[in-house]
Amino acid sequence: MTSDLLLRGGLVRTFDTGMGNATAILLSGGRVVAVGDDDTVSAAAAPGTPSVDLRGRTVLPGINDAHLHLAWYALAGPEFCVNLAAAASLAEVRRALDAAPPGEWIVGRGWRETTIAEFADGRAVPSRTWLDAVTGTRPAVLHHASSHSIWVNSAALERAGITVGTPDPVAGEIVRDATGEPTGILVESAQELVAGLLPQPSRDERLDATARTMARLNRLGVTSVTDPIVPPGLWQDYRDLHAAGRMTTRVTALLHWNWPSPTTSAADLSRALDSADLGSGDDLLRIGGIKLFADGVPTHCTAWMHRPYPGGGHGGLVTPGSGDPEQVRELHELIAVAQRRRVRVQVHVTGDRAADAVVDAIEAAAEADPWPDARHVLIHGTFLSPEVHERLARTGTGVITSSLMRTFSGPSMVRIVGEDQWSEAFPARTLLDHGVVVADSSDAPVTEPDWRRGVATFTGEPGPNPFSLPSQEKLLDREEALRLWTTGPAWLEHAEDRKGTLAPGRLADLAVFDRDPVTASGQELLDARSVLTVLGGHMVS
């Protein structure tokens, strides 16, 4: 099948500073070979090259979601899991669970305390007792929208052997009532006690679901994603999809060996890296480094913050150790292990105090063993101390923001940290002004992977909740926000010479939209539709 294609008669936004905008683009051999005006580019095409009349529509580089759990998102579909994201009351949770797919276990995902009315106004709290009345003796596990806690019933606790005497695991909590009995909420690494018991879909079910999800992303104009938690089994699934020619989205994988526990020791990391083939892959599927966790999330009061939470405490690191000093030392050693082996690290960090500690560790590793183009990354960077922006720029450390969490998590965050601090979250404007490379992301299935809402958020278009927008002075212009989904992710992947822009020699990844996302009004942007998505010169949507 040929990958030659001529697109003409539209607006080609190359996002290449040297190329500017054009009206036509020619693809051949999986690459961009010419960009310019219609006549010049058409003259460069070989006889018989398939041609598309754009009819004034807009071409952008393929959208790149810098942090999307592709396989998780695929397995969050209705054939595997009950979607609780829209449940606005316990009655709606009950109706959704009553319609759960057949199987030994009931699995749900997406509930939040602030969207279920009884939890939001304090009339009830998540409990195994309520869940027991709905699910009976069938074990049930309901994943919180953040993926940092689960709500389980008594049957699930019994299967896991969790009782009043079960100790909390490292970096986790079995939430208990006043008598010490488990309530059914398991936080951070405590999730592993139950999650490891869940029956797993078959290989064919996993691969089929992932391929369908890639096609769904293609319809949004997405051609690349970074999957940030890829254990060995998932890496093999991706390799199988690649070998079968079923990949329609480029995947950069970050290896991780511990989830759902966020805790990794330097010794365990060293052993894992000893057996990892980090050099395997190509432009369609490659390993981009590893994923580590520094802390938890603000909604669970597990992010490590300078300010105390309303109920007390500052959260903490999730690295091994007894107390902050030991945990900080372990964090430094984790980064140093990767630095010495020339392995890029992306670190989940949401609290400002944790971000300070991670940047300290990156600076220490660079001083001990310089690696000028390491391009380590802070994932989320939800709250950052003012002093850290310049340090990020100086060390060449990137940040992957999560604009869509302003829409999906705003009320939950405000309840914990207050409106003033929430207004400072995901400071893309400040980071860019300091010269830090920023990419944006959905973190699906934590949110829905709609880059249009992310762009609208950072450019000030009203959202579905009053806490969805940054402060006025922190807004981006439309092209800046779109670059967070194109050129920014490419740089963080060390792939800026291959994708993120449309210039001769780049990979032939692009999307044609029915309107111009740079100039469309707010609602028009949210309604923008990809009418053609191209990966490596081949039409995938």
Give a concise summary.
The chain has 541 residues and is an alpha/beta fold.
Could you explain how this protein is built, in words?
By secondary structure, the protein is an alpha/beta fold. The protein contains 20 helices and 24 strands. The radius of gyration is 23 Å and the shape is globular. The mean pLDDT is 95. This is Amidohydrolase. InterPro entries: Amidohydro_3 (IPR013108), Metal-dep_hydrolase_composite (IPR011059), Metal_Hydrolase (IPR032466), YtcJ-like (IPR033932). Residues 52-540 form the Amidohydrolase domain.
Structure keywords:
541 residues; 32% helix; 20% strand; alpha/beta
Largest sheet: 8 strands, parallel
Strand content: 15-25%
Query: How does the helix and strand content classify structurally?
Result: alpha/beta
Enumerate the strands of the largest sheet in spatial order, edge to edge or round the barrel. 8-15-16-17-18-19-20-21
Low-confidence residue ranges: none
What value does the Rg take, in angstroms? 23 Å
Straight-line distance between termini: 16 Å
Oligomeric category: single chain
- The helicity comes to 25-40%
Total beta-strand segments: 24
Mean pLDDT: 95
From the spread of the alpha carbons, the general shape counts as: globular
Helix count, DSSP H or I runs of 4 or more residues: 20
Q: Helices, strands, pairings?
A:
Layout: E1 5-8, E2 11-13, E3 21-22, E4 24-28, E5 31-36, H1 38-44, E6 51-53, E7 58-61, E8 63-65, H2 70-74, E9 82-83, H3 90-98, E10 106-111, H4 117-120, H5 128-135, E11 140-144, E12 149-152, H6 154-160, E13 172-176, E14 182-188, H7 192-195, H8 203-218, E15 222-230, H9 232-243, E16 250-255, H10 266-274, E17 285-293, H11 324-340, E18 345-349, H12 352-368, E19 377-380, H13 388-395, E20 398-400, H14 404-408, H15 410-422, H16 428-433, E21 438-439, H17 451-459, H18 478-483, H19 487-492, E22 510-513, H20 522-527, E23 530-535, E24 538-539
Helix pairs in contact: 8-9, 10-11, 11-12, 12-13
